[in-house]
Amino acid sequence: MLPVLAVADGRGLRALSAAQWRGAGLLGLVLSGIFSVETYGVVHTSATNAGLVISLTMIFTPLAEAAVTRVRPSRAFLGAAGLSVAGVALLTRGGGFTSPSARDLLMLVAARTVHVLLMARMKTVRGRTRCR
Do the domain assignments include residue 1? Predict the structure, then answer.
């Protein structure tokens, strides 16, 4: 992937500081770990359960952010989160949803919540995003 980035924006990559490279390396390792656990988890649980748990990342991330910042989520968010969980459960009910097992915890670990929280807090990656 780095060669593709070098061709696309070589000057931008050369302008990164050592701290930014270390931060990017850390985030890359975390994401690689997440993908490894996710791949292993998909093999050891049903596709339906895997999809359900991974789709809940959209709910886990704001809840984890609220726990880290100690700011209570709004009622609107909690209501929408509840409806989302109910909707996903209804969608998967007829497709072979089975009761959660210890293997499903692998998919929960693979939820990208940790990666998102790290990205938001790493000073070395803040302010470097740009769109062309």
Answer: no
